[in-house]
């Protein structure tokens, strides 16, 4: 089933051109109530990348969410070419549905060449082999987190710590979440699709530490959460057919808003990308 889910992801990333720098993006077979933010971001990134004049690597993506999308209808991605040079390019992508603006993305591209290099250390953790699969971690919790059980799962997950729903069941708390990720099946050679798959997955666990820091979990506790904005900085080209470690934490939560931040590490310990996401997160105690 997961490999069919990966086929779904690759299909929705294969955008259909419907006008000058305008693309239509479909939804997969399995959807939440609103369009999954990772899907919208990945599709916006692909739309921007398909309009490049020069073959440039991406340097950053910043998305502001304005309205929720309806999974029953396609999304139109309107690309504005802001800059095109030999080493630099910038795009704005407006995600529209039924004449309503869902989100705006800014994507930058830069071919910088070699320069200074340094890297934070990857956490010393067990590798993905031998860690429980996501299906094993969801077993027995089908009624607690049915949204996760029934979600599209094109990405293979291997948690190095208890996921939120298991942590909550055991009465613990976690100041960070660290999970190995990779596409659950063969990926095309196109580097844009590898990056888009990583962008898609960057929306999966980044806000978890906001609630796990307080010993809370989706499903067990009454929590409302919605993404406000999401940024990714691309440091190196990712190979998403191989494992990458997504290490996230929450530096701050205040005024019903929380920040999640983290890094993607490749198996060699190099930082591939940095992620920061802000969400509105509300907890309603006593109603879990």
Question: Would you mind describing this structure in some detail?
Answer:
- 19% of the residues lie in helices and 36% in strands.
- It has helices at 2-13, 37-49, 134-138, 146-149, 164-169, 191-201, 208-212, and strands at residues 16-19, 22-25, 58-65, 75-84, 88-97, 100-110, 155-159, 176-183, 223-234, 244-254, 257-265, 271-283.
- It has a twelve-stranded antiparallel beta sheet with strand order 1-2-4-5-6-3-9-12-11-10-8-7.
- It has seven helices and twelve strands.
- Strand 11 (257-265) and strand 12 (271-283) form a beta hairpin.
- The protein has 288 residues and is an alpha+beta fold.
Mean pLDDT: 95
Radius of gyration: 18 Å
* Helical proportion, percent range: 10-25%
Which residues form runs of ≥5 with pLDDT under 50?
Answer: none
Helix count from the secondary structure assignment: 7
Major sheet description:
12 strands, antiparallel
Distance from N terminus to C terminus (CA atoms, Å) equals 31 Å
Q: What shape does the CA trace take? A: globular
In percent, how much strand structure appears in the residues? 35-45%
Multimeric organization = single chain
Query: Strand order within the widest sheet?
Result: 1-2-4-5-6-3-9-12-11-10-8-7
How many beta-strand runs? 12
H and E string: HEEHEEEEHHEHEHHEEEE
């Amino acid at each position: 089933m997961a490999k069919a889910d990966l086929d779904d992801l690759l299909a929705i990333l294969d955008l259909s051109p419907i006008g000058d720098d305008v693309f239509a993006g479909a939804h997969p077979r399995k959807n939440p109530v609103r369009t999954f933010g990772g899907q919208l971001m990945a599709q916006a990134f692909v739309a921007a990348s398909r309009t490049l004049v020069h073959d440039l690597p991406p340097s950053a993506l910043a998305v502001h969410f304005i309205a929720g999308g309806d999974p029953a209808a396609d999304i139109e991605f309107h690309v504005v070419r802001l800059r095109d040079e030999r080493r630099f390019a910038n795009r704005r992508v407006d995600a529209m549905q039924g004449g309503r603006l869902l989100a705006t993305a800014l994507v930058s591209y830069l071919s910088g060449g070699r320069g200074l290099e340094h890297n934070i250390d990857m956490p010393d953790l067990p590798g993905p082999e031998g860690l429980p699969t996501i299906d094993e971690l969801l077993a027995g919790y089908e009624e607690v987190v049915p949204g996760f059980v029934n979600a599209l799962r094109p990405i293979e997950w291997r948690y190095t710590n208890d996921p939120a729903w298991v942590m909550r069941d055991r009465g613990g708390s976690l100041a960070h979440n660290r999970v190995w990720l990779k596409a659950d099946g063969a990926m095309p050679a196109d580097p844009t699709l590898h990056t888009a798959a990583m962008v898609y997955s960057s929306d999966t666990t980044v806000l978890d530490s906001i609630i796990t820091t307080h010993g809370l979990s989706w499903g067990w506790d009454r929590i409302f959460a919605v993404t406000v904005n999401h940024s990714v900085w691309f440091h190196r080209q990712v190979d998403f057919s191989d494992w990458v470690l997504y290490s996230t934490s929450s530096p701050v939560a205040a005024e019903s808003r929380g920040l999640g931040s983290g890094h993607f590490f490749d198996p060699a310990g190099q930082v591939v990308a940095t992620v920061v996401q802000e969400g509105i997160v509300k907890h309603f105690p006593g109603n879990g």
